[in-house]
């Protein structure tokens, strides 16, 4: 696609600058591959004509917070622990105006500097997406968080800072008997971070991803403007930012839809030996009117003593049969289901669950159940994090691969990948579950396969010490991607990571032109989110 020409950008309502936006894909110059080594071997910032003036010009800004220019390695690290892009400065904002002023200043200096800006929440990106090589990283956790405002009337919602953590929102809204309806599996993430991607978990089949449960946003655009947007006000920006990979603005506030929250959950797991039976039951459940509240699934490849491991958290329905079941050398599929309830309605709940289970075709001896609090279930991954941190196994490389596969090709995918390309999953879980996309809003920037029912398949593997390691997993990931491409499955990456223009255009498909137009409108010099490697910083001509 040709290079779009941006119009005039108004500076301080007086000065007009004309920008020629060269929207070239792949932000990092050829030959500078900073993801090749999981160590901190980031190249020293090379000198250039304006390098000495950049920090001093930033120091002239009047801020409520402050900049740091030394000891910045923490901003060149993320959960993926694969890419390390060293910035030139880190902004620790106290106010939204700090973010706006910094972006406006960089925009004004654009004729003499290539500075870019990346917003960093909890640093849970996988491939350096929240980093800014030789740019400015905004530490969103420094942003002052006003008290949450909770509206518990006819249409309940909560107003929160973009830097707020979902776990904090859960605890605060539960005081009113409410909670968000759609979650991620891990809650210690910022609102702005998940809404810039999508936010998908086992509730998405019913409520859609988190980006479909937002009423309003406050956004700082790539022009430095602070804009309030919703489906009725500045709607193009609103839908562009949701799932927009940080390309059009930094989310500083969000109004999130709430629903009634129960106190307890019934947590159920069952196993299947045939993928087709497993997927048919999953699709049946997400299409049922009175189904479970959460539905996910796992692939288990050659896992020894699987059911014994479950006993620490679950109780077998039939202990004798469960003790005789062997998972050794098998490919098994786990269906995980949850039903929310209040204790006074336990009898009705048990009847509903018994009816739902009677419609499924799982292996009878593998039925395991548990009852835990609503909070304990939603915050379940954090418990695993605590255990891994205690063993020094949390801050290892995480070469995760997340895919969206159309329902019509999921059997082909399973047959080609499980047991062939992927021969075990001892390094981490493999999630797989369907969602009904017909209930999703198709105006956001999120890209999905075209069919109504799609599967999320997430290879959440870790390069643990003493295992095959990072290179093996990344090679395996590439083999999976190559298989999808060769078989023409119509797969899309979730949390996408690409290197070339052709790959990005293929990813966005018919949405590419709209995506580029929005970039020109809201971030014409491609200042924001350079770590996504979609657009290169443009040059301005006064």
TrEMBL record:
<keyword id="KW-0285">Flavoprotein</keyword>
<dbReference type="Pfam" id="PF09265">
    <property type="entry name" value="Cytokin-bind"/>
</dbReference>
<feature type="domain" description="FAD-binding PCMH-type">
    <location>
        <begin position="83"/>
        <end position="261"/>
    </location>
</feature>
<feature type="signal peptide">
    <location>
        <begin position="1"/>
        <end position="34"/>
    </location>
</feature>
<dbReference type="InterPro" id="IPR016169">
    <property type="entry name" value="FAD-bd_PCMH_sub2"/>
</dbReference>
<protein>
    <recommendedName>
        <fullName>cytokinin dehydrogenase</fullName>
        <ecNumber>1.5.99.12</ecNumber>
    </recommendedName>
</protein>
<comment type="similarity">
    <text>Belongs to the oxygen-dependent FAD-linked oxidoreductase family.</text>
</comment>
<dbReference type="InterPro" id="IPR016170">
    <property type="entry name" value="Cytok_DH_C_sf"/>
</dbReference>
<dbReference type="InterPro" id="IPR006094">
    <property type="entry name" value="Oxid_FAD_bind_N"/>
</dbReference>
<keyword id="KW-0732">Signal</keyword>
<dbReference type="InterPro" id="IPR015345">
    <property type="entry name" value="Cytokinin_DH_FAD/cytokin-bd"/>
</dbReference>
<dbReference type="GO" id="GO:0009690">
    <property type="term" value="P:cytokinin metabolic process"/>
</dbReference>
<dbReference type="GO" id="GO:0019139">
    <property type="term" value="F:cytokinin dehydrogenase activity"/>
</dbReference>
<keyword id="KW-0274">FAD</keyword>
<dbReference type="InterPro" id="IPR036318">
    <property type="entry name" value="FAD-bd_PCMH-like_sf"/>
</dbReference>
<dbReference type="InterPro" id="IPR016164">
    <property type="entry name" value="FAD-linked_Oxase-like_C"/>
</dbReference>
<dbReference type="GO" id="GO:0071949">
    <property type="term" value="F:FAD binding"/>
</dbReference>
<keyword id="KW-0560">Oxidoreductase</keyword>
<dbReference type="InterPro" id="IPR016166">
    <property type="entry name" value="FAD-bd_PCMH"/>
</dbReference>
<dbReference type="InterPro" id="IPR050432">
    <property type="entry name" value="FAD-linked_Oxidoreductases_BP"/>
</dbReference>
<dbReference type="InterPro" id="IPR016167">
    <property type="entry name" value="FAD-bd_PCMH_sub1"/>
</dbReference>
<dbReference type="Pfam" id="PF01565">
    <property type="entry name" value="FAD_binding_4"/>
</dbReference>
């Amino acid at each position: 696609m040709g290079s779009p020409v941006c119009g005039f950008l108004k500076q301080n309502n007086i000065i007009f600058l004309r920008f020629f936006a060269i929207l070239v894909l792949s932000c990092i110059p050829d030959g500078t591959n900073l993801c090749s080594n999981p160590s901190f071997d980031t190249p020293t910032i090379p000198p250039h004509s304006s390098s000495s003036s950049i920090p001093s010009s930033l120091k002239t800004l009047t801020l409520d917070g402050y900049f740091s220019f030394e000891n910045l390695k923490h901003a060149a690290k993320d959960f993926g622990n694969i890419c390390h892009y060293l910035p030139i400065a880190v902004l620790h904002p106290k106010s939204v105006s700090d973010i706006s002023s910094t972006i406006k200043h960089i925009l004004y200096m654009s004729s003499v500097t290539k500075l870019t800006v990346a917003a960093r929440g909890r640093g849970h990106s996988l491939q350096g997406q929240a980093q800014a090589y030789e740019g400015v990283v905004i530490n969103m956790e420094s942003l002052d968080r006003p008290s949450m405002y909770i509206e518990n009337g006819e249409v309940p919602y909560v107003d929160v800072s973009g830097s707020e953590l979902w776990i904090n929102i859960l605890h605060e809204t539960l005081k009113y008997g409410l909670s968000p309806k759609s979650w991620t599996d891990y809650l210690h993430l910022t609102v702005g971070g998940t809404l810039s991607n999508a936010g998908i978990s086992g509730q998405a089949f019913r409520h859609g991803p988190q980006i479909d449960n937002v009423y309003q946003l406050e956004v700082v655009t790539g022009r430095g403007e602070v804009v309030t947007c919703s489906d009725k006000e500045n709607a193009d920006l609103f839908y562009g930012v949701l799932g927009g990979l940080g390309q059009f603005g930094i989310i500083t506030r969000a109004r999130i839809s709430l629903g009634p929250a129960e106190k307890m959950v019934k947590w159920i797991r069952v196993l299947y030996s045939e993928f087709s039976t497993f997927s048919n039951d999953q699709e049946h459940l997400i299409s049922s009117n009175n189904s479970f509240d959460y539905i996910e699934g796992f692939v288990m490849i050659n896992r020894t003593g699987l059911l014994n491991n479950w006993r620490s958290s679950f109780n077998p329905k039939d202990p004798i049969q469960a003790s005789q079941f062997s998972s050794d050398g098998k490919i098994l599929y786990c269906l995980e289901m949850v039903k929310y309830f209040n204790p006074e309605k336990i009898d009705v709940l048990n009847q509903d669950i018994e009816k739902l289970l009677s419609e499924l075709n799982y292996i009878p001896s593998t039925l395991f159940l548990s009852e835990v609090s609503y909070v304990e279930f939603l915050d379940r991954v954090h418990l695993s994090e605590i255990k891994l941190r205690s063993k020094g196994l949390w801050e290892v490389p995480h070469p995760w691969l997340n895919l969206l596969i159309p329902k019509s090709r999921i059997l082909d995918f399973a047959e080609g990948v499980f047991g062939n390309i992927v021969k075990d999953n001892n390094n981490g879980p493999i999630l797989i579950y369907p969602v009904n996309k017909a209930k999703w809003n198709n105006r956001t920037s999120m890209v999905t396969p075209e069919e109504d029912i799609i599967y999320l398949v997430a290879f959440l593997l870790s390069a643990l010490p003493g295992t095959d390691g990072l290179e093996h997993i990344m090679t395996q990931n590439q083999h999976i991607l190559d298989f999808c491409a060769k078989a023409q499955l119509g797969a899309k990456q979730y949390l996408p990571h690409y290197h070339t223009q052709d790959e990005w255009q293929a990813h966005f498909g018919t949405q590419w032109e709209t995506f580029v137009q929005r970039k020109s409108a809201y971030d014409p010099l491609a200042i924001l989110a350079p770590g996504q490697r979609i657009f290169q910083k443009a040059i301005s001509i006064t």
